[in-house]
## 1
Amino acid sequence: MNQVHLIGGEKGGVGKSVMSRVFAQYCIDRNIQFQGFDSDRSHGSFMRFYQGFTEHVGLENFQSLDRLAEAALRGNDMQVIVDLAAQSSTALRGWLADTGVLELFREAGVMVNCWHILDDGKDSLDMLSNLLEEFKNEARYVVVLNHGRGARFDAFHASPQKQRTLELGGKIIELPKLHEGSMRLVDHSNSSFWAAINAGENGEQLLGLLDRQRVKIWLRRVYAELDTLGLRA
């Protein structure tokens, strides 16, 4: 089954691009076909770190958005990963209404996955409510508890939003926190997670031994969460 993964959260700074990047690395390491799209005009980190697999998509340009739909309708077992910019729901809603693409996806057997990257703030929970109300049964939901952007998720676990997510057949996964210094080094290297933990052609290392070990352990934990989504070939 081909699938579209709309990785959002509406607010900035919740970790949408980090989730997109690690999901792309997961697909590479698991030999899963994917095409990435980066809608963030401000820094485009998804496209910067995975430029060989990712292209820019303009949320205000319907013809640009059409490319991600076309990618989702090609081949078999294709995963289309879309890193959504903050406050993108209005533009995305307009495109969906204009094209009737959800109906087209249903007819073609393409699964739409709406990802909500959650920090531990109330506004993030409120935005999850809006997402669930917007798509209802039109999509599958993946709620990501980002421990790099929140220390406690008690409010989510006691919330009607969690119950509604489960009622709709959604998945809830954890994004463990990577040590801030290690993540900073990876970001400053402008390299993929693979390049961060492996030697280059000339044997050079982007990270020191212990930072490489931290990233390896973190990737292992994230991959275990992503394995629960059933995408592994």
Note: DSSP finds eleven helices and seven strands in the chain.
## 2
Amino acid sequence: MEAVGGFRDILSICAVVYNRTAVLIHHLPRNYQYSNSFEFYAYTLTTDYQRLVTNNPALSGMDLVQEFYGQTTAGLPVSNWDRLDCDKMLLKALLAEWERRFANPTPTWRSLALFRSLNMAHAAAQIPGVVGVTNYSLGRNISLWVSAFEILVHPEKDDSGVKQVYALLNQVDWRTQACKDNTYSCYEGRGKKRVNLETLRVGLRRDQSRV
């Protein structure tokens, strides 16, 4: 199940990042901006394909296949499944990592951290709220993104925090000057000064080039 979840997280993040970027650049509505579309359906088939079962912390149940009527999630756009717009290069790289991670009985720490981070990112990329979205609900998603980045850069034997995340972002080979500019003042730690950090958002709005 962890391997299946990792595969889902790859598709989710590759699609969400691609479509959210397209919205920032082109200001047009896109499907798959949020990871809710990639959630597993609550019911699955039994091994004899005769019944449907569900089991989660809120519900355990069984139903007949012939009585199944699938439902979409209220608040999500419904679209015909013809193709999935996603970052093809990122998808190819992550699928290669997926095979290395789950085909290896003793995966490396970097591989473990990557898929733990992707799972947290999948949670962070969900719709912050369907009705009555507030700054608090937006802040909840932001805190999950912070956790996803800190998991990604965790060195296993030491602490992980903003300094490690900043160091990772500073290693990016930005394609445009706008992305290289020190634009925003970023938090460095309680009781410490703030530092400037390269920003992706400004670059996307100034230049339509991929970064």
Note: Strands lie at 44-45, 51-56, 59-64, 182-186, 195-198.
